[in-house]
Amino acid sequence: MVYNFKVFKKCSPNGKLTLYMPKREFVDHISFVEPIDGVVAVDEEYARGRRVFAQVVCTFRYGREEDEVMGLNFYKELYLASEQVYPPPEKLPYEPSRTQDRLLRKLGPSAVPFRLSVPAGAPGSVTLQNALEDEGEPCGVHYYLKLFVGDSEIDRSHRRSTVALGIRKVQFAPSKPGPQPCTVVRKDFVLSPGQLELELTLDKQLYMHGETIAVNICVRNHSNKVVKKIKACVQQAVDVLLLQNGQYRNVVCSVETQDGCPLQPGASLQKVLALTPALGTLRDRRGIALDAQLKRHDATLASTTLLLEPEQRDAFGIVVSYSVKAKLYLGALGGELSAELPFILMHPKEGRAQLVQADSQADVELFRQDTVHHQESVEVY
Question: Which CATH number fits domain 182-346: 2.60.40.640, 3.40.50.2300, 3.40.980.10, 3.40.50.300?
Fold first, then answer.
């Protein structure tokens, strides 16, 4: 039989270190994070008497580069995991994965495996979109794996003997859907008898990116006011935890209608409005939270951030959530009545299996292993 498997490859500028990784997306299962593993090919002549370290670095930019003046810095680095990979230990504290075994057989004795563990609760990979006129690196949370040659893990690394490859920490949709969201709000009027009632219901709690949300709106007008217009929208709430006033909202899609309006006193109205949250026309709006991208393809809105405990939030993270808001307009004197329901927007788990294309940071190598003759051929594209 013949098995094909793809790995990401990146070399240091001096060619003495080569990093191989089977994937660059690591899933956060809320209670734990998948280990980050790979293989390093080391030039033994160059590394004799030296050490090679692997580190997982989380970078958090919370301000624009162009605003950094007079030593002011809006950028932080967190070292979440660190391990010496060369010289390797006599016995590995873990069992190498199947891909690591294949790579070790292919690359020979100069290759050593590694495995790094990221703590649960580490912030997710999120990018805050720049406006068209903005320059420099966008704000957000990004990860990269760093390999370098040094005397200790706190030693200053030299660019020529360092490999840095961007990775992502992602979450996928839970397997069990939650309860159907529903809420009812009522409004009393000071000088008028009766109430205005608004019932808001979604068909489910969990939606995938690109899926249309059916918003069921039921209005019962027991007052003497007139409903003149109905509007519904999807709001993206972004919470930059490091900043005291770092909470804001973006409207990512909206629809309004006067069908069935004006709604007279004593009348009722039931309507279903369709909303599809997508980046679409929002590519020039500053502050929209996006999924941090590694590859050259279209960006998508950031997925909902799932937390094990709402209180256990990393101070360097960005928490994203979504909600549907419906609003009734009663005119200048009558005011407004609104209701809001949270929901979850995520990617499906089967999205992991999609083919990953090569990008500007890493080459993708295709290894073809013939298990009968124990020979492999390599095709780089």
Answer: 2.60.40.640
